[in-house]
Amino acid sequence: MILDWLPPTLIGFLLVLAGIGAIRRMNLWRAGQAEKVNILAGLLAMPKRYLHDLHHVVERDKYMSRTHVATGGGFVLAMVLVLFVHLFGVKSEILAWALLAALVLMFCGALFVYKRRMNPPSRLSKGPWMRLPKSLLTFSITFFVLTLPAAGILPEGTGGWVLTLVLSVLILMSLSEMLFGMTWGGPMKHAFAGALHLAFHRRPERFGGGRSTGLKPAVLGEASHGVAKPTDFKWNQLLGFDACVQCGRCEAVCPAFAAGQPLNPKKLIQDMVVGFAGGTDAKYAGSPYPGVDVGNAKGAPDQIITNGLISSDTLWSCTTCRACVEECPMMIEHVDAIVDMRRFLTLEKGETPNKGAQVLENIIATDNPNGYSPASRTHWAADQNLNLMKDVKQADVLFWVSDGAFDMRSQRILRAFVKLMKAANIDVAILGDEELDSGDVARRLGDDAAFQSLAKRNLATLSKYSFKTIVTTDPHAFHCLKNEYGDFGSDALKGVEVLHHTTFLNRLVKEGRLQLDTFKGGKVTYHDPCYLGRYNGEYDAPRELLASLGIDVAEMERSGYRSRCCGGGGGAPITDIPGERRIADMRMEDVVSTGAEMVAVGCQQCTAMLEGVVEPRPVVKDIAEILVSQLSEEVNS
Amino acid sequence: MSQYDALFEPLNINKLTIRNRIVSTAHAEVYATDGGMTTDRYVKYYEEKAKGGCGLCICGGSSVVSIDSPQSWWSSVNLSTDRIIPHFQNLADAVHKHGGKIMIQISHMGRRSRWDGENWPNLMSPSGIREPVHRATCKTIEVEEMWRVIGDFAQAARRAKEGGLDGVELSAVHQHMIDQFWSPRVNKRTDEWGGTFEGRMKFGMEVLKAVRAEVGPDFVVGMRITGDEFHPDGLGHEEMKKIAQYYDATGMVDYFGVVGSGCDTHNTLANVIPNMSYPPEPFLYLAAGIKEVVNVPVIHAQNIKDPNQAKRILEAGYVDFVGMTRAHIADPHFIAKIKMDQVDQIRQCVGANYCIDRQYQGLDVLCIQNAATSREYMGLPHVIEKTTGVIRNVLVVGGGPGGLEAARVAAERGHKVTLLEKASELGGQLVYAAKAPQRDQIAGITRWLVMEVERLGVDVRLNTSADEAMVKELNPDVCILATGGRPFIEQNEEWGAAEGLVVSSWDILSGAVEPGKNVLVYDTICEFSGMSAADYLASKGSLVELVTDDIKPGVGVGGTTFPTYYRSLYEREVIMTSDMLLDKVYREGNSLVAVLENEYTAQKEERVVDQVVIENGTRPNEELYYALKSSSRNKGQIDNEALFDIKPQPVLEGGSDEGMILWRLGDCVSQRNVHAAMYDALRLCKDL
């Protein structure tokens, strides 16, 4: 027939264009810094990572996961078959039927995509994403019709050249979206970049159920530190940004966004894309940073990010709670990116805002963020009769006290925990004044030099003593010790179990070493601290402990991995970027909505933030404090 | 950390680490039983302080080391026998388990005691000079007796150490044996134990050496000394600095406690435990002066009641430890409340000196406003737990201290509490009491109670005079009447109250009646109100004669408080007349004539004045009680057996359908005092 050559030519043409786009795109990523990855292993692992790990996240939204399986799965299958049937002209009714089936599957999925786009939630980006369901439907219908003759359903030549021409126009339209758009920055880019992002992810440990939450150490002593320009990111970080589907799940869970602070994780990732690809954010069609108009941001690969692309306030609004990372179906690492950029602001520019600079100076001068006399670190324990490691040299348990030692409120948590350990006859010692701040705040504020200095000195101290377990009531110190101190080549923690006190106490209760009475107070809810939950996956021990007191936890809607941050992480209370609300107030509203009279926590920072909410409000208590008031027998200190 | 960091910096005394800078200094508790043993009540009293966070408790003010220093008058601790050792172990364990430290003051009181009881000893003193406050005559101590007493000190210290206490404090203050030797006012000896400076120091030095030799170098041995006796012939501040330096130079003293003032006269005694008429920390400068010359920590108490005051003193470095003894009697959880960021919930000592004034009468030390103090052993709580039983509607009528305490305790229990007060402000009689010169701080009792009932959400209705209909309408499950009393000025018709010839002390203090120019105050009660009325009138310029039929004006006011009244009354030229009854009052022209009759001779005298003020106590406001009594479930009765046993009232076991429970407490039953009303309120309501 007269135009039979046209569809395959169009397909081929768009494939070539897609190929050119892919190379262009890859070059944009390659402008980033080198990072070693195992290309082959990554590519081989990719399908499993997609089908298992990524799907696991997507699966939290059943509607979307089924829709995506049908649409995405149908498309990938259809596209491969299209190549055989329509480009290479393989004559096989089986393939044609298979193609028809794939297209039907895709069509069904696309209908649901269409339906969702009829009245989309605010978190979803609009703009080109609004035409995607139409493109998907067009693709499936077009190729369905085009394939009918090949399947022997319609005679060859049905519709004549007119139909072929019409179909060709539709092919051009749909494939422009699906192939050309995939590598030239259309919505389908997510499939291309997403797949490669899974293959070359910077934290491969996250796949297969693992957890990787420790920040990567900054290399110190270089000409410049941290990420100033988009090209300062590792190449696979840039790739990761490109994988964003703009679903806005991050936006929906971001506490800073909800508080009206100028941060929206989705926009941040999109701005990163604008940065390394060059251009403006004018085409961004999602929610803005609260209080900041869209369209004024300009970026280029070699342009300082905070000079025109994003405001530093955006970076300082983050509490590093990891809700966005936990929620991201593309497994993008927002927090890494934010801290990378903070490192530049702090280490190179000295622009840590508000109390930031003072806190960092305090840390450098006194080894604790609030500048207390280092000699007063153990004042809280004057009446606790605790062994000092420097005296006893070894103990079963090293209690890492953390900077709660300086804070009168936190000291109540410390004393409660000590009493529980005494009740269980634990052989415990503390470092006393030898302990230094864990470095958590310094690190989250971007001062990795201060963090590394503290880490190395703490490790040197720890290496002098012998202990099997290190326990702390501070999830931030817990995270540093467990997940971040390992990067500094010390054996001090080799073979040592690092535990949060709730995990430790839960064991004691299970072993029958703590005798506790039933709790008779009112309704209790539990707030998951970010650095215990999302950072370390400990959701069960605190709940089991409460259950052991007979408490039936009245769960908040946002609990477990979806827990809402208290607002106290990442140095956010120090940088104190203004918003419309306080994060802690919102969290307390969550608490209040359960009807609880008490909120149990497992973190002194959460305690401080939640107790900072004006009364009347539920009582805030650490789990150790709740347990100690239920101890069956009096314990001598 | 907090603004109170200075309080929470641990400090060592010798090798003993004290967790904070707050000390409960030695005071006589009058709780030791069984011949001076630290039994249950004693232990629980100190345990509560340790539980509340107090750093160091120095217990047992004037605990005796010898059998000829009597202990039974003030039920003080007896260290003259090994029998004390296991009791000390109980005491030490109780304090240590809460992280506190505990030492004991040890002393031979010399002439500062009474001989007319117990073993009927001859009291001993360096020169046999009588002690006026205790009317104590004594013999001149002989050298053999000195060495025996020195040995007794060492044995007492051993017993403290063996009992697990953390140290001993040698009392060289309050005119005990050691400072009787020091003071040239009392020590007139010419032998090696007197005369020269070294001679006067010798007895104390031998005691110190003997004690140190017995307990070794690491056990804490402190000394409590005066900073200035305030007697021209006594020890002055410069001499005390010299003495402190002299003992400090031995290296055998681990700390000095410094007290301002001697106390062997009534007037100096009042300085030692400054009541509410004194400014804050009046004698800190004396302690700071001692700290200048010694190398060991210095402790100072005396009118330090507020955490901010303590912090200011410590931050300025005047002393190393702040004694807050009465502050802990009023609220043993003083430190815990600072740590819990509940400074506003601290029940602050107001300097009423009910505690120490009872002690000087040989009665157990009690707090005017905290009935739980020293009654921990009976089960009276400092922290009221919420009830796990039914929530009741509780109506309290009357917002004096008794009613406020009832409302507070009931609200702490979790009940719904309504408080009705007739007047426009809360406080009852305390409102009037606080109007007198130098007595304003008594209002602190009300202030705390009001803050607490507000915090606890009590529905307080002022300007509300309750009657039977109102109570019925509110329909409470429990109705507590604390309606107080009214001045009883009509007892003798001849006084002419009905004709308006006399007014009450309340009329004067409340400002309802203007002070006259020439006023006779007739006071049959001889406690605070009459003295206060006289002092108030005099301060407003009235010429006042304070007349009583009792043996002296203010005879019912305790030993640390009548002197401060007297200072003021004498200065304002108030005439004080005893032994005269007020026979009658009649009008003559524009004046009033008060006819007085001498109780012992029946001789009559007349006073021409323009105002007669009568303080004759109160009669209970019991009308509402009798209106409600018959319809109440319990006919208004309180089960005394349960009440005295600190047990729940049996009537609480019944169901609420059986009608309203009616109780009354305080002066609406019979005239007693603030403590009595608050004690009843606490013990009734703690199980509500």
From TrEMBL, chain A:
Domain 4Fe-4S ferredoxin-type intervals: 235-265, 308-337
Gene Ontology molecular function terms on file: 4 iron, 4 sulfur cluster binding; metal ion binding; oxidoreductase activity
Q: Which Pfam families match?
A: CCG, DUF3483, Fer4_10
Where would one find the signal peptide in this protein?
none
* Organism domain of life: Bacteria
The record's keywords, sorted A to Z, are: 4Fe-4S, Iron, Iron-sulfur, Membrane, Metal-binding, Oxidoreductase, Transmembrane, Transmembrane helix
Gene Ontology cellular-component annotations: plasma membrane
Q: Spell out the InterPro entries in the cross-references.
A: 4Fe4S_Fe-S-bd (IPR017896), 4Fe4S_Fe_S_CS (IPR017900), Csal_0991-like_N (IPR021872), Cys_rich_dom (IPR004017), HdrC_iron-sulfur_subunit (IPR051460), Helical_ferredxn (IPR009051)
Residues spanning the membrane: 6-23, 69-88, 94-114, 135-154, 160-180
Q: What is this protein called?
A: Fe-S oxidoreductase
TrEMBL record, chain B:
Q: What Gene3D superfamilies does this protein's entry cite?
A: Aldolase class I, FAD/NAD(P)-binding domain, NAD(P)-binding Rossmann-like Domain
Q: Where is the NADH:flavin oxidoreductase/NADH oxidase N-terminal domain?
A: 7-341
Q: Which Pfam families does the annotation name?
A: FAD_oxidored, Oxidored_FMN
**Do you know which InterPro entries this protein is assigned to?**
Aldolase_TIM, FAD/NAD-bd_sf, NADH_flavin_oxidoreductase, OxRdtase_FMN_N
SUPFAM superfamilies (alphabetical): FAD/NAD(P)-binding domain, FMN-linked oxidoreductases
Q: Return one GO MF term.
A: FMN binding
Protein origin, superkingdom: Bacteria
Name of the protein this chain belongs to? 2,4-dienoyl-CoA reductase-like NADH-dependent reductase (Old Yellow Enzyme family)
